[in-house]
Structures are given as C-alpha cells and as structure tokens.
Design brief:
- There is one protein chain.
- The protein is an alpha/beta fold.
- The protein folds into two domains: 159 residues, D-Maltodextrin-Binding Protein, domain 2 (3-Layer(aba) Sandwich), CATH 3.40.190.150; 99 residues, D-Maltodextrin-Binding Protein, domain 2.
- The chain contains eleven helices and ten strands.
- Strands 1, 2, 3, 4, 5, 6, 7, 8, 9 and 10 form a ten-stranded mixed beta sheet that branches.
C-alpha cells in the first residue's frame, strides 16, 4: 500500500512537473508567429527594411516573424489593422513618415500614430532619391526646374502615396524652386518605381532601398538624393543641398510600433531584440547595401522623434496645401 502511495506520489509529482513546464512554455514570449504589418505594397523601402529585420528576428528569437503587406488609403488601411489588433505582442506596425503625416492629413481618423500606438524602436533611416527614366534627358535638378517652369504642372513624378516622405520630398522641391511638379500617387514605393521603370512617368521620388538596384543596373538614372549628404551606395549622386537648395533635407525613416495597451515587458523585449539584430554585422551589411542607416535606441528616442516628425510634417502639409483628396 505504501508502495502504491509512494508510486502515486511520484506519478503526481511527474504530472505536476510536466504541467508546470507546460505553463512556463506558454508564458514564454513569443511562442507563435509574430506579424509585422507594412501599410504599403511589396518592394517599397519600408517593405525591404522590414523583411531584413523580420528574418533577423526570426533567427534571434527562434520564432517566425512574418511581414504582411496591407496597402491602401495612404497607409491608413494597414495602420487601422494594427490599431484594432489584440495588444498581445503578436502584431506590430512598421511605421514610417506616412503615418506621421497622416496625423495632419486625416485629423478625424479614428486611429493615429499619436493616439493608438506604443512606440517600440526606431529601425532605420535613409534618403529618398529623385530619379528619371533613361528616355529623359535631364542631367541635374536645375534641368528639371527649368522644364517645370517652362510648362507648369505638366512634368510629373511618381511617389509612394499622398503625404508619403517621397511626396513631401517633391513638394519641398516645388516650394524651394518655385515650380509645380505634379505628383502621381501609388500604393507604396514599389509600385511607383515599377511605373517609372515602365516609362509611364518621367520622374520618381523613391526611398533608396526601393530604387538602388534599378539605379545600379542602369534601368533608372539618379539625379539627386534628399538627405543632408551623399548616400554611400550612390557616391556619385549629389544631394539636393549640393544642387543649390541649402535648406533641403528629407529622410525616410522606419520605426516599429505596437497597439496601445501592449504589455511593457513585451515591448521592452522586442526593443532589445531589434537593437541586438541591428548591431549584427551581417544585418548591418544587408541594410547598408540597400542604402539604409541603422537606427535603434530606446523607446523614448522613437517617441521624441515621432513627436518632432508630426510637427515638421504638419508645417509642410500646410505650406504645400497637401490634402487627402489631392
């Protein structure tokens, strides 16, 4: 009898150990696939950066990180999807300039970067590129300005969507040069570059990762970069500052945010994991090959940066009279 009791106790202890281990396993985060929602089409700068980071996180955390493209309405569709997702750490938004702009562009929108999300980590920054189809004969920004002044409103450029960093880049040139290039919006940088490749639009403003290979292959010709200095991947391409616009500087950024209410420990874990992968030489080289500069840093760094971007973009939207119905 005592043997039975001892054996039963041992069996119970085994089940208790198995159960405790099961509960512990369930509490380990993440233990199922994590979605990184890109609110634009495939092939754009946000998409390219997100896929490199997702693969690195998959390796580091031994759990699948999936990039899911949800384009539409200048990024509002994807933003809304994440804002309404469970705040359990399994859905993140790969935000960029467009989400900061949309705070002003859609002031009555139910979900916004300022109110519906928790900043997690700044991932990367990069310049945009003004490029042309090889059939065009522009050599410099001043050539484009001269053509635009000769025929106001006729010269067009493709961009990633109304209010995108690429749209802002075009409008900044319009304001500083006193011209009217006409922007043609697409559902992300990838589709914008594809239409420029097809020759359907003569010019394109695109994030460097979305266009760098096409430039290196000679499929498109770069005129200028929008950042404060030349891009390492395109050392022969001047900046807008060098082209005669000393106050011109617009960079494209990507940051990860989570639905409001996501637990602090989850956000901190992802912040740490992203910072770790960005310090990895292999990841840094992959991003650098796309013209991307890694960012990283604390949650507060991204919070402060988003606040400043929202204010900056609001002033440009007002000055350029950019509207969602444009």
């Amino acid at each position: 009898m005592r043997g039975i009791i001892r054996k039963s106790g041992a069996i119970f202890g085994l089940f208790a150990t198995i159960y405790a281990g099961s509960v512990l396993a369930e509490s380990v985060y993440p233990n199922r696939p994590v979605k990184l929602i890109v609110p634009y089409g495939a092939g754009g700068s946000t998409d390219v950066v997100s896929r490199i980071v997702a693969q690195a996180l998959t390796t580091r955390l031994q759990n699948t990180f999936i990039v899911e493209n949800r384009p539409g309405a200048n990024g509002v569709v994807g933003t809304s999807v994440v804002a309404q997702a469970a705040s359990d750490g399994y859905t993140f938004l790969m935000a960029s300039n467009g989400q900061a702009v949309n705070v002003s562009l859609y002031p009555n929108e139910q979900f916004s970067l300022r109110t519906s999300f928790v900043p997690v980590v700044e991932v990367a920054v990069m310049p945009n590129v003004l490029a042309e189809h090889p059939s065009q004969s522009f050599k410099t920004v001043q050539d484009i300005v001269a053509a635009a002044k000769a025929k106001p409103g006729e010269l067009t450029y493709a961009h990633a969507g109304i209010g995108s960093s690429q749209n802002i880049s075009g409008e900044m040139l319009n304001m500083m040069a006193g011209i009217k290039l006409r922007g043609v919006p697409y559902k992300g940088g990838g589709p914008a570059v594809m239409d420029a490749l097809a020759g359907n639009v003569p010019l394109v403003f695109a994030g460097l990762p979305a266009i760098v290979q096409q430039i290196k292959n000679g499929q498109l010709r770069a005129i200028a970069v929008t950042g404060p200095k030349r891009a390492a991947e395109l050392p022969d391409v001047p900046s807008m500052i060098e082209e005669g616009y000393p106050n011109y500087s617009e960079v494209f950024w990507v940051g990860m945010v989570a639905p409001q209410g996501t637990p602090k420990e989850v956000v901190d874990r992802i912040n740490g994991a992203v910072n770790d992968v960005l310090k990895d030489d292999g990841v840094a080289k992959l991003l650098a090959a796309q013209g991307v500069e890694v960012a990283g840093g604390s949650r507060k760094k991204l919070t402060d940066f988003i606040i400043s971007e929202i204010a900056k973009d609001a002033s440009i939207i007002k000055a350029a009279n950019i509207t969602a119905a444009e």
